[in-house]
Specification:
heterodimer; A: 257 residues; five-stranded parallel beta sheet; three-stranded parallel beta sheet; B: 65 residues; mainly beta; five-stranded mixed beta sheet
Amino acid sequence: MLKLYNVEVQSRLLLGTARYPSPAILADAVRASNTDIVTVSLRRETAGSRSGGAFFELIRTLGVRVLPNTAGCHTVSEAVLTAKMAREMFSTDWIKLEVIGNHDTLQPDVFALVEAARILSGEGFKVFPYTTDDLVVAERLLDAGCQVLMPWCAPIGSAMGPVNLTALRSMRASFPDVPLIVDAGIGRPSHAATVMELGFDAVLLNTAVAGAADPAGMAAAFAGAIEAGRMACHAGMLEPRDMAVPSTPVIGKAVFS
Amino acid sequence: MTFIINGEEQEVAAATLADLLAALDYDGEWLATAVNGELVHREERTGFSLGERDRIEILSPMQGG
């Protein structure tokens, strides 16, 4: 079973809660995905509005663990303060650490990410860093106290799917014992199945489900694909080859001419 | 006093953070607060004195990916 910071989780799909057409559709998608963990965020509250309360209650009724994020943070200090406010708000020391370095690609600022991860780990946070597939950065994040890594496979919301399979493969090979969750860039269930076939431990999704015509249907499709990829990885897949190999044995075949 | 509340300048008669939240009708166990870049825990708000032009952040849960 997958263990994240000593917490056992059944589902290998982590689901984002943003951009659904309605709270009811979000709830349906969470249930259909069978996920154990959803990501959430924080925003400025308007005086007297209590708008966050309804969402807070919805998440509570879904009975899933929350992984708050530091989305939109661009500096170490912003990310650290947001993480602390998230811990207070959601009563969890889990934090999906995002420190964005580029406006167009939403690529993480890996230098700030490592620094923020070190500060937060030192303050007792269980850091889930949104990072790239860079092996040296991954090493630094582990040194900083992270016990889980969340590499992107393509830019957030791009739906491109894994653009660098070689990098993902070498990341898996380099860190065989670290839980690796592909976070960001997945567009369709086949992308999720592909990274699970490579041996990744889980997938974090949002837009691919929330933006589908039928989010609950897509959540179920992803759950199936992730499970299929996982099973295939364990069952041992064939390597591709250039030439055909007859699947029907040719020994004893009748000769008619 | 004048404060910068969630990025906007505002005049509020409040001596502590708890006073300010009450005066502006902020309520909810889900709120998280920070003053001048430092978290102020829920239980510290009553005793937390505010000063002129303090920067106050009041956050609540939202959907996220």
